[in-house]
Structure formats: structure tokens, C-alpha cells
Amino acid sequence: MATGGGPRWRTRLGGAVAAVVLLGAGVAIGVRVAGSAGDAEDAPPAFEAAAADESGDTTERPTSEVDRSPVDLTPTTSAAPTSTGIDGVFVETFTGDPPEPTPWSSANWDITIHSRDVTALDRLDPMQAAHGPDCSPPDNTHLSIEYATAVYQCKDHVMTAINGPGYAMIYLTPDQMIDFSDEAVIRFDISTHRDSVRDWWDVWITPYEDNLQLPLDLGSDVDVTGPPRRSLQVMLGTENQVKATIRDDFDPVLFPNWPEDVVTGDVFTGWETFLEPDARRRDTIEIRLSPTHLKVGMPDYGFWWIDTEIPEIAWTSGVVQLGHHSYNPTKDCNSTNNPRPPVDECLPNTWHWDNVEMSPTIPFTVVQSSPRQATSDTPAVSLVSPAPSNAHVRFAGIGRDMQVRFDDGDWQPAELQATDRETKEEHFASYWHPIPAGTTTVEFRAEDWYADRWRVRDVTVWSPEAP
């Protein structure tokens, strides 16, 4: 099955292009906050505020059995509309204070939730996620086991919580591309406590046409199908530091003057050396990017892991994906790198996200669908609005000979997005298939793979046209 004019697993482009990828370690990114340390005049317009604290009861985590009563799995939409396309600034405040952890969704965000474990294909591996059943703050917890509850809202911010004994990940993608033809900034607030070094977050910036629903690069084929053709990735590392790699045509762009030929930055300074890690407090991460310069750090602490010239990036706008990864998190505790407070039990982490801000941005269209999964029992999904022009249907799928049709039309082989390697039968793949304008129903069929039935997840329709 070909895509983009070549083999589905390795379609190449001519010309030199750059992208940044993080291997095995991650980073915090964001935008300099007005009034924080540094040059205030360098801050982008309309960016205000910084870290936030949890509020509410501070009682200790209950020792009795967690409340396993059913929760409302109906996704909610942010109470305060997201600002998009206002003077080229995107802002998401995740405003909303529900009385219990409530699944979160928004018309402005594409959400993908993935687990490769066969036992977790319909229901996630259980974990104790942060915030109590009444949204009381950490260290209170509640049981999370459904896909719908892996991204949820409490106290005016959003959490991601996922447990991947084999591998699991979540991606949150706003319907805005960052434009870094001049300097661009991305900022978000995030919690800093974690119990396992095998649970981390990352950020990908990828040209629109190269986006992957499930990008991953661990230096091996643990899951899915590798990194995008071109990308810039920043990742939180095992030492709570930043690493970065620029990729062009799937391969790293070498930095001869850096250790290991990648943009490593300050590999010795973890954030616990200048802040007290805390699940309740959310600190600002900032990334500044131009075609020739990369700067990543925590401006409120006056610290930058990376501040360097980079080989010129030929593409100058890209989709932004905020990721959460879990890879057998009970295996390695965070006791060495995060000694305050001591960590004596390896656990999957909850990351708390808030105040995502990007500038300047270019809006594109994302059309949601329901239900979130298609199988032989329920093979079709309905779009919330007709597909726009110049659009692709985007989904993750597993199964042999995946096919798709639109509004009861003819069946077509589903087109895979170009990736670095061929998809293993036991891995989900990222699909990117042209869809006719006006389509309202998308139907799938495939042959079952060797361990389970075929399935499709998280179907959306994307168009580069503005809404």
C-alpha cells in the first residue's frame, strides 16, 4: 500500500529540512512570562500569568478502598471558549470546576488515547489518578480505568493519567499550527512531581502534511511506527532535563559540537535542583523557536536547558502535539532524580496541564466524530459536521487490509501516513486518507490480526483551511 508516492513505511522528500526530537529524556517548554526573570520586552503579546497552585482540602490520601462507583463518561467541553485566531495568539485555560473528575474534550482539540496491551484495548490498565472522587487535590486519588477518564478536568485545569505496562500514550493537539518563520513561542504550565522515570511528557512540532497521530521515537520499535518524516521534539528526560534532536527525512540532523551529535543542552541539571517538585503546583515551561535558533527552559526560575543556534529549518510552521507516555512505569522509580520528597514506590503518573499559549499561530480545521472506537460490531463513526474541502480522515488503526468508505460509497484501501518503518501486525498505525467534502459518515473494515479483532480509534477529519 503506497502513500505519498513511495512505500508506506519510508517515503522520502528531497531537500534539507530540520526537526527536533528528544530521545529518552524530556523537557518543559513554554513562553517567557511577563514580569518573570529576563527581558520582559522579549515576551510575546497577550501572554500573562504563570504558575498555579491546587486549591481545596489538604487532607492526606485516604487509605480505605477507593470508590469504584460508576462515573459519568460523557466528555465535556471547556466552559470558557478557547481563544483562537485573535491576533495570531492561541490560548487555552481549561476553565471548569466540576464536582468530580470529569472527562474533558473540546471542539478546539484533537485527543488521542492509546494502549498497545491486548488486555487494555477496550479498557485501560487501572491506576490511581490524581484528585479524589470529589476533585479534592493530590495526594487524594480516584480510580481511572476507562479511555474516557484518561483526560479529565478538575479545578480549572486538565489532567492526563495513563498506565502502560506494555506502552501507552496520550496526545493533545490544538487546531492551531505554530508559525516560526520569525521567533515563535509555546508556553504551558505543568506539574513537576513524578514517581517513575518511565512516565514522561513530550512536545512534537511537525509540518501539517507529515503529522502522525501516534509519533514515537525511543531508538527502537517498542510500539507504533516511529517518528514523523520531519519534526521538532522536546521530551522530559530521566534526569528531569531536556534533550532535543532535529530530524529531516526521518534521520537526525547532526550537531558536530554537541555530545552524541544531538542537541543535548544542559544534561546535568534536573528541575529538582532549583525547584521543589510538586503535584499541586504547575510551573511554566517555555520553548522559543525560529528557523535557526532553539531555546527551552523554565523562565520563572531563570533557567534554560537549551539556548543554541540550530541548522536552518526549511519548513516554518507545524502542528503542535502535547504528549504523555507511559512505558512499564512500575519498573523504575524516580528516587534518584527527585529526592524531595523521597519516592519509594514506582507508579504511573498524572500530569497536570494548564494555560497553553502559542504565538503566532495559523488555525486549521478539526472535525470530531463519535464513537471514539470502531470495530466489527460498530464499524462506522459519524462526523459532528460535514467534512470540509481539502481534508483527510485521521485515525489510529490495527488489523490487516484496513479499508474505508464514505457515506456508503465504494470501499478503498486506507492510506497510511508515511513512517520510518513498516508497521508490525501487533502495532497500531497512523492513517491519513483523503476524504470527500461533505462526508458525514466514515465506515471501516479489516481482517482481524493474530491476537484480537481489528479496531480503529479516535477518528477526526483535518483540513488546512481555517474554520
Short précis:
The chain is mainly β. The protein has strands spanning 2-3, 6-7, 76-77, 83-86, 89-92, 102-105, 109-115, 127-130, 141-144, 151-154, 157-161, 168-174, 176-179, 184-191, 199-206, 231-236, 242-248, 251-253, 282-290, 293-298, 303-309, 317-326, 350-359, 361-363, 365-367, 369-370, 373-374, 380-383, 391-398, 400-406, 412-413, 429-435, 441-447, 455-463. β4 (83-86) and β5 form a beta hairpin.
How are the secondary structure elements laid out?
Elements: E1 2-3, E2 6-7, E3 76-77, E4 83-86, E5 89-92, E6 102-105, E7 109-115, E8 127-130, E9 141-144, E10 151-154, E11 157-161, E12 168-174, E13 176-179, E14 184-191, E15 199-206, E16 231-236, E17 242-248, E18 251-253, E19 282-290, E20 293-298, E21 303-309, E22 317-326, E23 350-359, E24 361-363, E25 365-367, E26 369-370, E27 373-374, E28 380-383, E29 391-398, E30 400-406, E31 412-413, E32 429-435, E33 441-447, E34 455-463
Parallel strand pairs: 3-6
Antiparallel strand pairs: 1-2, 4-5, 5-23, 6-10, 7-12, 8-9, 10-11, 11-23, 12-22, 13-22, 13-24, 14-19, 14-23, 15-16, 15-22, 16-17, 17-18, 19-20, 20-21, 25-34, 26-28, 27-34, 28-33, 29-32, 29-34, 30-31, 30-33
Number of beta strands: 34
- The computed structural class is mainly beta
Beta content comes to 35-45%
Low-confidence stretches: 1-51, 55-83
Quaternary organization: single chain
Shape type? globular
Rg over alpha carbons? 21 Å
Put simply, the count of helices is: 0
Helix fraction, binned, reads under 10%
What is the rounded distance between the termini?
A: 32 Å
The major pleated sheet works out as: 11 strands, mixed
What's the rounded overall pLDDT mean?
82
